[in-house]
Amino acid sequence: MTFLFPPHPTSVIPVQDSDHAFPVHRIYCVGQNYSDHVKEMGGDPRENPPVFFSKPSDAVVIGNQPVTYPPATADLHYEVELVVALASGGSDIDVEEALARVFGYAVGIDFTRRDLQAEAKKQGRPWDAAKGFDQSAPTSAIRSTNGGDHPLEGRISLSVNGETRQDAKLSDMIWSVPEIISELSKYYELKAGDLIFTGTPAGVSAVVAGDQIHAAIEGVGEIHFVLVAR
Ligand code: MN
After folding, report:
1. Which of 35, 148, 156, 181 is least buried, going by the fewest C-beta atoms within 10 A?
2. What spacing in Å lies between the alpha carbon of 78 and ligand 1's midpoint?
């Protein structure tokens, strides 16, 4: 048999200071993982278990390329997040074993059509259209742990046109990286190539075409790009 049409290429993320590239398998995301953001969205951080959702792997945008403002929204929000890149996976992974699965970390933006998400929440509907659209996951190059360097304490921040909008510490996460990997692996068999977006701190808000977005995580890297009109 032959393909009816050429298969779509795998999304690939560069690795810092390396000729290697990271082929993306799936993109998992955690919602509501910083107390101050849960509060700003009207929730109670102590009552809510982690919320998992996903994006298509081809939603990744690399190389600080411009991101096109998506259709069907008038309220596009940025969310800066620590991205975990897995070197191996499994099911029912123990918390103590989880960090050994991590290849490295990146800075990612979980773009969200907030108006669609608000409507989905109100109607009890899925978040897919609010979260899983084209170009909804700009991601920096991945920084390898080099066998055990896990920078999970540092500052995570995002600015729009030079003005700081999000500024927090990774240590403010409600669910830690090992806890997220362990919990997620109860629902899915994790694989090498999986990315996990680990939630955003407070300060989310709308952006418009022409805005310059810069985000950084201490010890991990940075990303900067412009939002452009369709
Ligand atoms: Mn998010």
Report:
1. 148
2. 8
Ligand 1 centre to CA of 2 (Å) is 39
Confidence of residue 220 (pLDDT cuts 50, 70, 90): very high
List the domain boundaries for the chain: 12-228
- Say yes or no to pLDDT of 124 above 80: yes
Confidence of residue 205 (pLDDT cuts 50, 70, 90): very high
Residue 191 confidence (pLDDT): 98
Compute, in angstroms, the gap from residue 110 CA to the centroid of ligand 1: 5
Distance from the alpha carbon of residue 31 to the mean position of ligand 1, in angstroms: 5
Question: Which residue do the tokens 């920084």 mark?
Answer: 143
Determine the distance separating the centroid of ligand 1 and the alpha carbon of 44, expressed in angstroms.
16
Q: Does domain 12-228 have CATH number 1.10.1200.30?
A: no
Find all residues with CB under 8 Å of 75, minimum gap 6, and list them: 113, 114, 115, 206
Question: Which of 56, 14, 30, 10 is CA-nearest to residue 187?
Answer: 30
What is the separation, in whole angstroms, between the first and last Cα of the chain? Answer: 38
Decide if pLDDT at 46 tops 80. no
Q: Ligand 1 center to residue 215 CA distance, Å?
A: 14
